[in-house]
Structure formats: structure tokens, C-alpha cells
Amino acid sequence: MIYILKSNTKSISYDKNLMQDVYILQLLYIKYISFFIKQDKLESFDYILITSKNSVDALLNYNDKNLFFKKPAIVIGNSSKKAWINAGGKVLFCPNRLNSGIQLADSIKYIVKGKNILYIHGKDIATDFKEILKNTCNIYEVIAYESCENKEAFNMNFKDNSIFIFGSPKHYNVFMKYYKWNYTWYAISLGNTTYNTFPDNIKKINSNGDFLNAIKLAKKIIENKYNI
């Protein structure tokens, strides 16, 4: 069985064959945090920095949401990119790969240098872009959501050789808070930051992509077409 640990139960793909024996495990749920930015302040920003699809969803709940989507955005990850475009926004830059946070920050420094940046993110962050970019640009942050533990999801039993796809470091850390790792299991990350959270003594893989790519990789493991 393949388990996807993410903060909502929306299916990754409409391909029934691909999603067979794939279960979405929602250990965390998203709680949005209200915020307010004066219009003149919002108009002063050159770009918006989006590191999660949840940030886009938070902006969609804002009263004057259209003011945000008029701004070009630097987005991290394909799901964030798709969400921003679907909301009517223009993507200025999206890296091809999900590298470590420091590498991602370095890849956008030439774009944000000397600019006014609005950074929308969650309460728990794997990479503090404000700290990394503080000497490169003027960056203003808004905490727009937080991920909370879903207490109803911690009573499952998992078989040997199960494969777990972790959407973030917090998903892995919360999982380990309630379950003891079985060393026949496999851990798959979407990028370097989560991968580096895994200990060295487990079966682990970095898919360097999105959930869809990670599922395809997990299927190859099941079919013995990928060796760790």
C-alpha cells in the first residue's frame, strides 16, 4: 500500500490505475489565519513569494483577493504554480526542481534584488526565506495559515513494505510522534528539505518532484523496477 501524507484529501490524479492501492492519510489539516494589509502597502509590493498551495488558498479567502493576483508571483512547486494560475495570477518564476530551501533562495536572489516582496506562508516553515533574503530585498511576511494535527487519523495499522510519501517535514515528524517506524517501510520525499529530515538508517528516496511523480516512483518500487 502507498500512503500519501498531506493536508487535504483531494485526489492527486484522476487516473484510476495510478491511484489503485494509494491512500491519502490526512494527519494534518489547514487552519487559515485572518490578516489585513492596507491597500497602499499592498500596492507597494513588486512581487509575491508563494511557497505552498495553501498560501494561494489563504489569499482566495481575502476580501480584496484580486489585488494580490494582479502581482507577479515567484512560486515554489508545481501545485503552487497551478493554483496561482487558476486563481488568475501571473507566474514570474517557478524553479524546475524542488531543491533545498537555501538553493531555492539562491535561485531567486537575482530576481528579488532591491525589490519589495510580500511573502505569504504558514506558521510552520521548513525554510525561512525572510531571513535568507533579508540582505537582498525588502521582504514583508504574512502568516496566513497553520497546519494542525488531525487527532482522528492516528489509529491505523500499516503492513510491512508500506510506502509513505511525505508532503513536508512536519508530516514526517507528526507521523513519528504517533507511530514507530518499521524498517521494511519506504519513505519518499518531494524535495531535499523533507528528505534531509529522514534518518540515515531507513529506506528513503527523494522524488525531486510533486506527489504525482512520487506516486510513479512508489509504483516502480512495488514492481521491483527501482532499487534503493
What does this structure look like?
The chain is of the alpha/beta class and 228 residues long. 32% of the residues lie in helices and 24% in strands. It has 10 helices and 11 strands. It has helices spanning 16-19, 39-43, 53-60, 65-69, 78-86, 101-112, 129-133, 169-178, 192-195, 211-222; strands at residues 2-5, 22-25, 28-32, 47-50, 73-75, 91-93, 116-122, 138-149, 163-166, 186-189, 203-206. The strands form 2 sheets. Strands 3-8-7-4-5-6 form a 6-stranded mixed β-sheet. The protein has a 5-stranded parallel β-sheet with strand order 2-1-9-10-11. Helix 1 links the parallel strand 1 (2-5) and strand 2. Helix 3 (53-60) runs parallel beside helix 5. The chain is elongated.
Keywords:
elongated, 11 strands
Concise overview:
This protein has helices at residues 16-19, 39-43, 53-60, 65-69, 78-86, 101-112, 129-133, 169-178, 192-195, 211-222, and strands at residues 2-5, 22-25, 28-32, 47-50, 73-75, 91-93, 116-122, 138-149, 163-166, 186-189, 203-206. By secondary structure, it is α/β, with parallel strands linked by helices.
